[in-house]
Design a protein that fits this description.
The chain is of the alpha/beta class and 725 residues long. The chain has four domains: 328 residues, Rossmann fold (3-Layer(aba) Sandwich); 215 residues, Rossmann fold, CATH 3.40.50.10140; 67 residues, Trypsin Inhibitor V, Chain A, CATH 3.30.10; 64 residues, Trypsin Inhibitor V, Chain A (2-Layer Sandwich). Helix content is 29%, strand content 16%. The protein contains 19 helices and 24 strands. A seven-stranded mixed sheet has the order 3-4-2-5-1-6-7, with helices on both faces. A five-stranded parallel sheet has the order 11-10-12-13-14, with helices on both faces. Helix 16 links the parallel strand 12 and strand 13. The N and C termini lie far apart (112 Å).
């Protein structure tokens, strides 16, 4: 069996994935399946990555039994096992309190309020570490005052949705930024919370069922409802359904075959043909064959795990073991290919979503309606095979790493429309970063720069935008209502702050126009700088209905050849690097076709610059220089902090200064009577002061006090006998 891996290849986002585990009835082993999947996923994580398990079965919480906290509480075995630790219901209580009492009349205002409420949550205060490495748990809630059931019973989930419809999606996005995998244990049946968990939150939906009519009919209705909602809504995220047959009794071959494939004489449809029909209709497939999938993915009934909360994946085992059954399913889940794809057809590691369909269909469904004679290629964003459309040009994309989850649907829409989409995730391992990006910028027919709260402060994004504008290939796109950086406020940005279908279609049309005509944003000679921004808000106008290209209606129009890639710039305007991070500055120099030399120098005391920041440059900013010119950057050396020397002696002070990468400066002696000679009684600068490495610290040292006695006078005879007699 091949090694399980959750790492994704270059070009695939490392954003977290939201997975909901749902069953229509209890007793299917849903929570046990989630626990085993979580442990197997935790084995595959890279440095700094974590799994979060969420107990959303609020009426019957039990996930915490599989994942006891690192520090065990005192809950008795007879109660529900919840203590004073806050959890999901408490999180939503705070979330509701952060929202306006009445829903906003404008959609943008409602989403802005929801985003502010979600971003204001202290997520770490609700999630707790468990005994398992890399796994945290968001429990159902606290029960310190016995009021848990009251909070659960009185919370109005529908009202929360009406006040801020985007709140659940935004919470999912925030969780995905914080964790590599988020596994949600959903409530059974048809309830408000089960609807939230299955339709509003996940990218992957695992429906756990046992072979009986109650379980099968319940999950069929749920899948139809969830896929219909996502298909008809403006939610652009993917939703991929994985059926998980559970509690399969291996010893009864006849019953196992009957309930899998069906028996007309007994009125049994069979779960395989049921799901084949269900997924074919949901995803618009001409046919759906789940034979290979169910040959591999079934969770058998095992008597050893019928008692207690045990996790089979921790015990290992051979190919007939329960642990191996869960591992096979996790391989499918990580591979992220649709369940109707054969294991051999799946990529070695998998994409984040199903390949997006043409613009006339929602982005979340899999596009598999092409005739068998059409050619196929692997989608550059999702790594899923799809029909190869007409090549329409190369698109370079620039955005902040924190925005990748929001940008992915946009890249998918461009890729499905025939554009060759490139981002820095496409960089092959071992490549020259700056050289490769400069090459991709030079070859791009269009450059999309996504402005957001994070990207406007990114030197790398601003530098790429500057180069794209110099070449006349720039299309700025607004993800947030922010002011563009200095040098870009005069350009009309494409508004995708609400991420609507119309906005996506218009963006694709604008890209196509640039590729066809070669007319992008006008070049400018004023490069953006690191810390300069517009002080007044810049109005961001949308394209509206001014220019709208419907690709289906233009299919018969002759398409002119793409404009040739522009020639490299012969002369470059040197940007201002002073105050920039040296690594960012060096990267920009490479993007502009220049060369860089860097040297370090101690900075002046009291300077704003710290270690690694450029303090001077040659040539100066704004200089027009030929390509290949050497740009020399002076970088501030290591920063040090003055230790506390007062009260020590010179020998101790010398050691403290050496440890802090500083040196002893002027030594002055001060006569004092209350300190032993040689004690340091003062220092300049004061303890804790920030200094360039190698700076000197002056000290005052106590000297021995030499008190001169008053002179002796001869006695005055006229005064008579002295008082001492």
């Amino acid at each position: 069996m091949k090694e399980l891996s959750a790492r994704e290849p270059a070009g695939v986002a490392a954003a977290g994935r939201i997975v909901t585990f749902y069953s229509y009835k209890g007793g299917t082993g849903r929570t046990m399946a989630l626990a085993n999947v979580a442990c197997l996923l935790a084995e595959t994580l890279g440095a700094g990555e974590r799994v979060l398990v969420v107990d959303w079965d609020l009426e019957a919480p039990g996930l915490h039994r599989f994942f006891p906290p690192r520090l065990r509480g005192q809950a008795a075995a007879s109660d529900i096992g919840l203590d004073a630790t806050p959890g999901l219901i408490d999180l939503f209580g705070e979330l509701a309190s952060r929202l306006p009492a009445e829903p906003a009349t404008a959609e943008d205002a409602a989403e802005a309020a929801a985003r502010a409420a979600v971003e204001g949550l202290a997520l770490d205060s609700y999630a707790a570490d468990t005994e398992f490495a890399n796994i945290r748990i968001l429990r159902a809630g606290r029960n310190d005052d016995g009021g848990y059931s009251k909070r659960v019973g009185t919370f109005d989930w529908e009202r929360l949705f009406m006040r801020a419809p985007a709140v659940y999606r935004l919470l999912a996005e925030r969780l995905a930024r914080a964790y590599r995998w988020v596994l949600i244990d959903s409530r059974t049946g048809v309830t408000d919370t089960s609807g939230i968990c299955t339709t509003l939150l996940p990218e992957k939906l695992v429906v756990v069922f046992t072979p009986n009519l109650q379980s099968l009919s319940g999950v069929r209705e749920l899948v139809e409802r969830a896929t219909r909602y996502r298909r008809d809504s403006d939610d652009l995220r993917p939703l991929l359904v994985y059926p998980l047959a559970s509690r399969i009794e291996a010893s009864r071959q006849d019953l196992r075959t009957r309930w899998r494939l069906g028996d007309k004489d007994r009125g049994i449809v069979g779960f395989q043909p049921m799901f084949e029909d269900l997924l074919a209709r949901a995803y618009g497939l001409p046919a759906c064959d789940l034979g290979t999938y169910f040959d591999e993915v079934q969770i058998q009934q095992t008597a050893d795990y019928a008692y207690g909360e045990q996790i089979a994946a921790r015990s290992g085992g051979d190919r007939f073991s329960l642990a191996n059954s869960y591992r096979v399913f996790v391989e499918r889940l990580v591979a992220a290919g649709p369940p109707w794809a054969s294991a051999a057809a799946l990529p070695p590691v998998a994409p984040a979503a199903i390949a997006p369909p043409p613009p006339v269909e929602p982005l979340w469904v899999a596009h598999a309606k092409a005739a068998p004679t059409e050619s196929f290629k692997v989608d550059p964003v999702t790594r899923v095979a799809r029909p190869t459309p007409e090549h329409r040009g190369k698109v370079f994309t620039s955005f902040a790493r924190a925005d990748r989850a929001r940008v992915e649907p946009i890249l998918a829409s461009l890729a499905s429309s025939g554009f060759d989409v490139w981002s820095d995730r496409e960089l092959p391992y071992g490549s020259d970063f700056s050289r490769e990006i400069a090459h991709q910028l030079e070859m791009a027919d269009a450059v999309l720069v996504f402005w957001s709260q994070e990207s406007v402060a990114s030197t790398a994004v601003r530098d790429e935008a500057y180069v794209a504008r110099q070449r006349g290939r720039l299309i700025p796109v607004m993800l947030d209502n922010v002011a563009p950086p200095l040098g870009f406020g005069d350009l009309q940005s494409h508004d995708l702050t609400s991420m609507t279908r119309r906005g996506l279609d218009e963006l694709v049309g604008r890209v196509d126009q640039l590729v066809r005509t070669g007319q992008g944003a006008p070049a400018t000679g004023a490069p953006p700088t690191r810390r300069q921004f517009w002080k007044e808000a810049v109005a961001v106008a949308t394209l509206g209905g001014a220019v709208l290209y419907w690709f289906t209606s233009r299919s018969a129009d002759p398409k002119p050849p793409p404009a040739p890639a522009p020639a490299p710039l012969a002369t470059v305007t040197v940007p201002n690097f002073v105050g920039s991070d040296s690594a960012d500055a060096a990267r920009t120099v490479g993007l502009l076709g220049l060369k860089v030399e860097m040297s370090t120098a101690p900075d002046k005391p009291g300077s704003e610059y710290i270690e690694g920041v450029v303090t001077a440059q040659t040539p100066l900013a704004g200089t027009a220089s030929p390509a290949g010119t050497v740009v020399r950057l002076i970088v501030a050396s290591e920063t040090a902090y003055a230790p506390t020397l007062v009260g020590t002696n010179l020998n101790s002070a010398l050691k403290l200064l050496a440890d802090a990468n500083l040196r002893l400066g002027r030594t002055s002696t001060v006569p004092v009577s209350d300190r032993p000679p040689g004690t340091i009684v003062g220092q300049r600068p004061a303890p804790g002061a920030k200094l360039p490495a190698g700076s000197a610290v002056d000290v005052d040292v106590a000297a021995e006090s030499k008190l001169v006695p008053p002179p002796q006078r001869a006695p005055n005879p006229s005064l008579g006998p002295s008082l001492g007699r």
